[in-house]
Amino acid sequence: MTAEPQVPPFYTKLQGSLPPDFTWGYATAAAQIEGAWDEDGRGPSIWDTFTRLPGKIKDGSTPSDACNAYHLWKEDVARMKEYGARAYRFSLSWSRIIPLGGEADPINEAGVEFYSTLIDELIRNGITPWVTLYHWDLPQALYERYGGMLNKQRYTADFLRYARLCFERFGDRVKYWITYNKPGLTTRAKYAQGRNAPGHVSDTEPWIVGHTELVSHGYVCEMYKRDFQPTQTGCIMITLDGNWYEPWDEKDPRDIEAAERAKEFEIGWFADPVHGKGDYPASMRAQLGNRLPRFTEEEQRVVRGSSDGYGMNSYTAFYARHLDGVSDRSDYRGNVEFLNENSKGNPRGPETDTHWLRMAPWGWAKLLRWIWARYGVPICITENGTTVKGEHEGPAPAAPGEIVEDPFRAELFRAYLAEVAKACQEGVVIKSYFAWSFVDNWEWALGYTSRFGVTWVDYASPQKTRYAKRSAYALREYFEFLIAQ
Length: 485
Ligand code: NOJ
Prior knowledge:
It catalyses: Hydrolysis of terminal, non-reducing beta-D-glucosyl residues with release of beta-D-glucose. This is beta-glucosidase. Plays an important role in cellulose degradation. Shows hydrolytic activity against several glycosidic compounds. InterPro entries: GH (IPR017853), Glyco_hydro_1 (IPR001360). There is one protein chain. By secondary structure, the protein is α/β, with parallel strands linked by helices. The protein has one domain: Alpha-Beta Barrel (TIM Barrel). The protein has helices at residues 30-33, 46-50, 69-82, 94-97, 109-124, 140-146, 152-170, 183-191, 205-232, 253-275, 282-288, 297-303, 328-331, 361-375, 407-426, 470-482, and strands spanning 23-27, 87-91, 128-134, 176-181, 235-241, 244-247, 310-313, 317-322, 336-339, 379-384, 430-436, 455-457, 466-468. Helix 7 (152-170) runs parallel beside helix 9 and helix 9 packs across helix 12. It binds 1-deoxynojirimycin (NOJ). Residues 29, 32, 181-182, 313, 383, 436, 443, 452 line the site of 1-deoxynojirimycin (NOJ).
């Protein structure tokens, strides 16, 4: 495969602005790429069940085959190496490792072996594995047994045992662990909006589940640091979602407050207990009252300071306008309306193939500084990327080895990375950047309609054949330019 990057040059003054050990690569998640949902002893996850309910997924699809990464893992690692990636962030499917999920349930050695081989192959190719323990795919059996994360005690015991097994089996080679991916977004989508599995609509459950995630994350970190870190010398963190919220009317104090509240409901909900003062933001307590659980002293002790870095997934920016009365639709986001244009009619950014996502590097620039100022913890960017308007409709590549042109995605990487570089020059500590995603993949409730990859996947082909997109080579070029030699 040959590539001639046709990408605009970066500003010369940003050259070498990222430290030599800066980590960059690609991110994926098991449920979105692996397929092979019932092969070699894997048990079902809540997504396997949820997607069979009519009307839940935009294109009626399931992740049963996804991108066939369970079989194409070796080819995928070779491709990642060709793209120049230094690291690969992927998640483990809990129900592939412990099919029924529980602390007393049997281990599926074939599942352990699959990940172990993948880890070896990555290391052999000079690609550092970053492993997420939980990327939204709870074993179905735990949901059926006790309601999954709604039962803090039983769930935490099961999650601890699963995490311990992963540290025991993979921790000799994996030095970067992430407990949860984006708990905020998924918890809202799962328990407030009913959009994600298991599809509940409730005004109390999101806060109960969020608390379970925080507390179980804390206990897993405590266990890792006590029993594994001294010998395995790795690190552990939680990765949080968060977009930027700008006041709809910059002169209206109520919108200024609403924009801050939106960030606190989305980011502060998890980041304040972990990286901040050890409790939920006051704005959340004021609106949610006793619906928001309280930390016991012990919970607070294990949660606060538990994460070795600030894991950051971020994509876009919105305008935030205050609402006068709390409604079901705005309650979980802090009683704020999210808009595409501000009061002057300025749009937040160019459209993509995904309704919530617009290219908005201006917001990303502000967000990096907001996180750094509020928490002062080294930032590990674990996800950022885009879909491209019209890309999903094709045209699909015509010949083997053809490179798909995606200038919009390359431009997004360039614009967002310029902000990373500028922030680093100012002293904001940023350690990594993982592009979402390595391959087009199954985008949860949006099915296969949102292509986020730097690799085109031909979903119609039995093998799920891959084709490089130009942005993969652009990204490599950007990092060659930005990282100090
Ligand atoms: C965040 C999630 O972690 C990932 O699963 C999803 O595909 C991307 N954002 C894009 O929406």
